[in-house]
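User: Show me an example of a complex going from sequences to structure tokens.

Assistant: Sure. Here are the input components:
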Amino acid sequence: MKKISGSSLSRRQFLASTAVSILFTSTSGSLARSFSGQLPWSPFAGDPPTPVRPGPWLFFTHDEAQTIEAIVDRIIPADDLSIGGKDAGCAVFIDRQLAGFFGNFERLYMKGPFAKGFPQQGLQSPILPTQRYRAGLAALDDYCRTTFSGRAFSALALPEQDKVLQELENGSIDLDDADTKTFFELVLQNTMEGFFADPIYGGNKDMVSWKMIGFPGARYDYRDFVGNHNQPYPLPPVSIMGRGDWGGKG
Amino acid sequence: MKRNPAPFTALLPLAMAAIFSAAAPARGQGATDSQSFEIIERGRYLATAGDCVACHTAPGGKPYAGGLALETPFGKLVGANITPDRETGIGAWTDDQFVQAMQEGIAPRGHLYPAMPYPAFTKVSRADLLAIRAFLNTLEPVKNPIEPNQLPFPFNIRASMLAWNALNFTPGEFKPDPGKPAEWNRGAYLVEGLGHCGTCHTPKTILGGDKNADSLQGAVLQSWFAPDITNAMHKGLGGWSQEDIVQYLKTGANQFTIASGPMADAITNSTSKLSDPDLKAIATYLKDMPSNANTTPVPVAADDKRMVAGQAIYKDTCNACHLDSGAGTSHLFPTLAGSAVVQSDNPTTLIRVVLQGTQGVATAAAPTAPAMPSFAWRLNDEQVASLLTYVRNSWGNAAAPVSAADVKTLRESLASAE
Amino acid sequence: MARKLPRKDVVIVGLGWTGSILANELTDEGLDVVAIERGPWRNTATDFNVGYMQDELRYAIRKDLFLRPAQSTLTFRNNVEQEALPIREFGSFLPGNGVGGAGVHWNGQTWRFLPSDFRCRSHLSERYGEKFIPDELTIQDWGVTYEEMEPYYDKFEYLAGVSGKAGNINGKRQDGGNPFEGARARDYPLPPLDMTYGPKLFAEGAREAGYHPFPQPAANASRSYTNTLGVEMGACSYCGFCERFGCANYSKASPQTTILPVLMRKPNFECRTNSEVVRINLDRSGKRATGVTYVDAQGQEWEQPGDLVLVCAFILFNVHMLLVSGIGKPYDPKTATGTVGRNYTYQTYAGVEMFFDNKNFNPFIATGAIGQCIDDFNGDNFDHSGLDFVGGAGIMCASTNARPIATRPTPPGTPRWGSTWKKATTDNYLSSLYLNAQGGSYATRGNYLDLDPTYKDRLGRPLLRMTFDFPDNDIRMISYVTRKAEEIAKVMTPRQIVPHYRTKPYSVVPYQSTHNIGGAIMGSDPKTSVVNKYLQSWDVPNVFVIGASAFPQNAGYNPTDTVGALAYKAADAIRNLYLKNEGPLVPA
């Protein structure tokens, strides 16, 4: 095996004029990269999130949106602790998530064959979140119209909505092919994500959930307060895109 | 299939290691034997001190074979091929022609432009210049035709340089000041001569000549602000000890800061390879440089709405690294309190690093190369202006507020340079 | 058709902790080293931006920095009677991806194993008799002692800037440290982190209960630090975004914050990213590796010849690499023969939740490894005579974060939505605590790794198949220690105590631990181990397999300190033994 002696190596100095070289220029597209000579760095490097913008629904139809807004507003009802899930933007959050990589399980292993498996083997269904929402919301409205004399879920009285949601949760309503419990768990999970995630994703309007529980958000330094045991933390929450006190027109 | 293994390394070995001992090279003696080991090694060292390789090497090209395009306010100039190739390099030049080019800016083919810092190199002794020549003669000749002059009319008329010289150029070798110690004089020789520090750090007249009255008091180039390196307390090196300066030039970092931007290259290629006595001499000289900017401006009031917003942004964004006190962390996160760059009249560098981030230089002695992340995605122009106004006017700092318009202008020019 | 590249001295598969350590040591030796990493390049300022790293949804919930199952996963079953199905979404453990590997997203809990852990079977036999060890367990000795490991532990801890308090320096007890730990040559490089309120209360309670609390050793720098390679680290800011996140503050030890600045400057090192090694190539004899074949992001195959191949991927993929390359004999649980895939173990977790009135723990003020611990019930630190299990667990109050999508404790019986849920969430968010019991995991004949007969990865290779359930011994062990934790909780007088016992079956759904262990274990006998005490393959001596894949079973501690120490140990053996005489370092 070839060895370079330590001293001769240390005497060889290299000017790292090109630290990142693209491997094999004979192929095209986004290439595997080779790094050598120095830590690579380039101006503006980074992959910041793209904040959700208000606007039309990207995934939901008008009817679906009405139903999901009604659902998230019962999962997180408006009360003296906070605004409701709808005003907090949870439905917008879910819409944008379904329109993105999450909606199609792009990151997951979705090769067959698909088998039912044991609960401890986790997700085994080929049904994607987009499909599950589409089928589940339709089946839910069908169920409500059948059960509540033609009224869709959003047209039910609030106690009726709560009762339907409880029955979805405990599986006592059968939404045919929509797999009631899986559908409910997905909606519950996504609603909570929207309520507690950074507001850049469309939910948690004005950091409402963080203010409610006392989470200071996207802060990165608590050194000055580590030793202040059993005392309330004084600074307000901050989002990845800042807070009102930063000034500047948005 | 024919494959070239080069893409893996794509790195150019440069035979310019700092194997020099601490002893400063002897000066003023006749450089008669251009083949002697001592003279070639001295030339190598001096070429390093002059950072010749920086301008005379294209990105990814062969060292000293030319091709780096320099954007000047007057147009584009390209570093010449200074390998000993007789046709496209300087192999056919006589020693006298070489010395004349360095000291007077007159090459065999015509007048040089002062992007080649002959107004500084004129101070270098003939013996040192011939040592550099001796070193350059040891390079492998590279055939690489370069047209250095890519200026638009009328600047492309080399004869126009005659008029420029009459206004801006004082030829003549460095004359030691007998009233100063040898170390000071050595520092002056390096700073004013080969080191050509003023090329970046001295403000320029509208014609691109040095404003000699403002020597080394800071200047903008290529959207960086090269700060005041006089001993000015507020905006210069007044707060740094001689040892701080030495450590900065030697390792790229000291207890206050880490070099980045163009100075990172100067440290990598040049100052990190200089001998300790030479670095001490440079520091001695700089610490003795007077400044005519020793009045401290009045800080922006803490209740100014830009300061209030800036403080909120600072606490939510900058605290983790630079700390609430602006003290930073030695060798990792630069100190903002009392920093000359922070308080410079010109905030270009500050705006730039907030928008696009920057990477600190890595040297063998300080290899970390910590980097500042980009915040262009997070902060709009007004927020950057408020933040920097706050940073420039807190913890005892004082400097003019930064305007959103300045941020906007730089943001656009950096984006178009991408 | 693979295109052939110029030879390198050393080819490293994966550039995480072990790959970075080996690369740095062997480039110092003057060798020409290439690391082939299947994930992307990552570094602090460009990828762990202090402005957007605190994004729970992106990094903790959608798992942005982790291996995507679409790229590679494994299949799972509890036992050979079941059909293994793919882990379509990672849950109970989260393999890393990209430069830095799991070293990017770990918490920084940096433990040494006990001296008795390295002599697991011998120690228990000597103390209790061979018959005391339950029949189901295939635990064995490591083939290396704690004393041999000590200098390498030291080396890793001083590289990583670990904050902590020694309990035993050269055999001398140190107040405030762990009295059960093996002797160390010197104290930690940094003092412990400043303690938050919850761990402080736990330490008081544990001391009152008669135990020996000490601060958890943390690779979260309590002060700024210049490490042994001259790389600078910043002081931890207690942001609470450690696990699942990269550190934006240069505070959490990772290859990025400790090694890469030095390694990347070296002209004899190269890293290729987004390039996945398909297999290790062997010559006709099958006794010598000739290099590796890998696929780049475009799907182009390349053959990278090399004299020495170091397998430095995550443990599961280390084992997978050996199996798909035909190195070593695959383990067969029916006959209990073969070695590759044998003794796969995990970590046995349980915990106790506590709800307080009138307390504010500010749980978001956190670091990945802050906390107070007791080791009184770990390993064999307590007398097992009369007990029906071997092994043990540490108990710790180590509140690593309070990110609210995932961490919103409410007392049992609280609805999961609606106004009642909201009130309970608001009432308990700041005032609840959790005690972890982190137990060892002991090997059995039936827990193992092999290749799946049905499911394939994106490159057409069989997926790795995991067959695992908690051994009954370990369930008894963790139940015992959980009861001890409950007793300490009582001393702390919360309003309500909720124990969470561990039960079978093991599930891959809820997150538990990314401490997957074994499958390419080290030992002194080639019949029961895959690599020798230097982590050199018994079968192909120019292949070394480095990582937690080498642990014969798991102790009641986080693995990274031991992984780092083993990497330094292997590097030392390559530098000082192998390069002088290429071939088996231990006769088979």
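The lines above are the inputs; the final block is the predicted structure for all three components together. The first strand of chain A starts at residue 14 and ends at 15.
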